[in-house]
Amino acid sequence: MHRRSLIAAAGLALPALRAARAQGATPLRFSLDWALQGNHAMFTIAAERGLFRDAGLAPRIDRGFGSGDTVVKVASGAYDLGYAEVSAAVKFNAENPERRVVCIYPVLDRTAAAVITVNGRGIAALKDVAGKRLGAPEGEASRVLFPTFARAAGIDTGSIQWTSMAANLRDTMLARGQVDAVTGFLFTTHFNLLAAGVKEDDILAWPYAENGLDLYGSGIIARADWLEKNPQAASGFVRGCVGGLKLLLAEPDAAMESVKAREPLFDVALEKRRWAMTRDRCILTPAVREHGTGHLDMARAETLVRANAEAYGLKNPPGAESLFTDRFLPPAAERRLA
C-alpha cells in the first residue's frame, strides 16, 4: 500500500508541477497569417509538447486574416509576435519607422507566391500569360510583386488584363474560367482548386522563387522595441518554433492531430498534403539543407527589400538590416534539419 501510495502521489505531483511552471510562464500573444493550415502545425505541436513551456513561455496562438493584417497588429502592440510574409513589412516599415517590425526567423526560405492556372486557358508556359486575364486581390503581395517578377522572368506585361476580387473568391473564379490565371500562395490556391473540382493534373504553377525572383517567404516577426525589452522571450519562442518544425518533419501525423485538437473542422488528410508541398517547395531548400532552418543571407534580404521598394515605388525603403536579424536564432547546429 505504501509503495502504491507513493506512485499515486508522484502521478498527481507531475501535473501539479507542470501547472505551477505554467503559472510562472510569460504570456505571449501570437498571431498566425491565416486560418490554421498544415504548415502551422509546427506551432501547435511545439505548444502541445511543452517546448514553449520549457522556455518559460505561454503563447496564445490565434488565427490571422492575411499577412498585412498580422504586420499591423504586431506593430500596434495588439500581438507580441506574428507569422507573416516578410514582404508585407517592407512598405509598412518605410511608412511607420517608429513602429517597425523585424523578422527574427524566416521559416519559409522561399516565398510561396506563384502564378497558377489550369489546362485549357492557353497557358502552357510562363510567357503565355501575356495577353491573358489575371486575377488577384488588389494590394495582395503576389500581385504587387508581379511586375518585378515579370521583369525577372521575361514576361511581357503590357497586354495583361487584371481582375480584382476578394481573396476568398480568387480560386473559384479561376476554376470557373472568369480569369485565365491568378497570383497567390501556391499551397493555398492549389488545394482550393482541388476543392473546387479541378483535377490535380490540370493545375499548372510557376513559383516566383523558382523562376527568377528568389525571396524569403513567411517568418516570425516582432516589433523592434518589444525585442529590445524581451530578448529572452524572443529567443525562447524561436527555439520552440525550430523544435516544433523538427517535430512536424519527424511526426507529421501527430503534428496534424495537434492542430485538429484546436480546430475540429481541420481536414487532416488535405492539410498533410498541403504541408508536404510547403515543406518541399518552401522549407527544405538547398540553403536550408546546407545551413539549417532560418539561415539569414543578407544579399537575399536586400533583394527582398529592393523588389518591394520597386513594386511599391518607395523612395526611402528600410535597410535590410533593419528588417532582418539572426540575433534570436539558436546556434546553427540546433537548426539542422534531417
UniProtKB/TrEMBL annotation:
<dbReference type="InterPro" id="IPR027939">
    <property type="entry name" value="NMT1/THI5"/>
</dbReference>
<comment type="similarity">
    <text>Belongs to the NMT1/THI5 family.</text>
</comment>
<dbReference type="InterPro" id="IPR015168">
    <property type="entry name" value="SsuA/THI5"/>
</dbReference>
<comment type="function">
    <text>Responsible for the formation of the pyrimidine heterocycle in the thiamine biosynthesis pathway. Catalyzes the formation of hydroxymethylpyrimidine phosphate (HMP-P) from histidine and pyridoxal phosphate (PLP). The protein uses PLP and the active site histidine to form HMP-P, generating an inactive enzyme. The enzyme can only undergo a single turnover, which suggests it is a suicide enzyme.</text>
</comment>
<keyword id="KW-0784">Thiamine biosynthesis</keyword>
<keyword id="KW-0408">Iron</keyword>
<dbReference type="GO" id="GO:0016740">
    <property type="term" value="F:transferase activity"/>
</dbReference>
<comment type="pathway">
    <text>Cofactor biosynthesis; thiamine diphosphate biosynthesis.</text>
</comment>
<dbReference type="GO" id="GO:0046872">
    <property type="term" value="F:metal ion binding"/>
</dbReference>
<keyword id="KW-0479">Metal-binding</keyword>
<dbReference type="Pfam" id="PF09084">
    <property type="entry name" value="NMT1"/>
</dbReference>
<keyword id="KW-0663">Pyridoxal phosphate</keyword>
<keyword id="KW-0808">Transferase</keyword>
<feature type="domain" description="SsuA/THI5-like">
    <location>
        <begin position="38"/>
        <end position="255"/>
    </location>
</feature>
<comment type="subunit">
    <text>Homodimer.</text>
</comment>
<dbReference type="GO" id="GO:0009228">
    <property type="term" value="P:thiamine biosynthetic process"/>
</dbReference>
<protein>
    <recommendedName>
        <fullName>Thiamine pyrimidine synthase</fullName>
    </recommendedName>
</protein>
